[in-house]
Amino acid sequence: MSPSHCHIPFLLLLLLHVVIARPLFPLPSKTSNEDKKPIQTFRPYNIAHRGSNGEIPEETTAAYLRAIEEGADFIETDILASKDGALICFHDVTLDELTDVSSRKEFANRRRTYEVEWVNVTGWFVVDFTLEELKTLKLKQRYPFRDQQYNGKYSIITFEEFISIALDASRTVGIYPEIKDPVHINKHVKWADGKTFEDKFVDTLLKYGYKGQYMSENWLKQPLFIQSFAPSSLVHVSKLTDSPKIFLIDDFTIRTQDTNQSYWEITSDDYLAYISNYVVGLGPWKDTIVPVANNYLMAPSDLVARAHAHNLQVHPYTYRNENQFLHFNFHQDPYSEYNFWINTVGVDGLFTDFTGSVHQYQELTSPHPKDATANNLLAKIAQMIAAYEGL
Questions:
Q1: Residue 387 pLDDT exceeds 90
Q2: What is the pLDDT of residue 27?
Q3: Is the Cα dihedral 108, 110, 115, 117 positive or negative?
Q4: DSSP reduced 3-state for 66
């Protein structure tokens, strides 16, 4: 898609996606980013969690297009692998909750039980389906209290299609892919060349020009954060690329999926000093930063301060507008929540299901600086001349 197409009204894009059989984003992308508006770096990053999934089923083309339209700095995705080794965008290791797989008679015998992250899970697993089969499934909204009108209209997209959505945007939009459940993937998916899931993940990024340390010239052209809950994967990936990485942190009770370490171990000062050799930041669940009791916030921990002391950014997840996700302290006001996390806690980015809300808050409280264009400069000169002549 050429940059000019990104100005088509969003609802028309939805219609086109349903009606036109060919992909919206042919690969590889041919769009030049030389003249694009750069990504903003002067305020916390607005990270579109699985796209604008508060409005549209997660990790779909439409959800990512909507997030870009609403002002996302980064579009975020989860990467898994199909039975035949294709990298796809999908969050759950099973297809049960987010697709129509349970109604597909031809796949009735694919239900399995596998160990995933130390527990047995039963369902239709992504790793037991080829890319061609996965593409036939239709996606639906995760939460029943969100808009259901787009259910059944979109299919699973590949990692390369996701990348093209970002590259073909009319401004510079970063990507924020997660190496999802690498232990599970490497156990069930094998590649003919002997490479691992992590290797294939990095190969794809390099293929499309994603490289360079945080804030380098290359990074600013194609911004990227690589994320994972698996510290050993991040260490391995660090040998393959110098692109910035984020170590994700789950609930207090959940141990790391690869090293089986506790939350307390991986947030110790010694561990932060160790992991800072490989990552530029942490992505904690927000309730691990500020504990909650009876839906009220307790006193914030010192995790953000300690991370910053190790020169690590902090990008918590997930910010959602609905009342059931807003702690009582915020009085049903998501703007109050953003204000607390940005100005009191001092985070460096926010994973959100509602990109538009975060963008509106940021524009109200810390708006983009005015562009110093030639026309603006000429206008200022004219004003100075007029003032001089009036003396």
A1: no
A2: 61
A3: negative
A4: helix
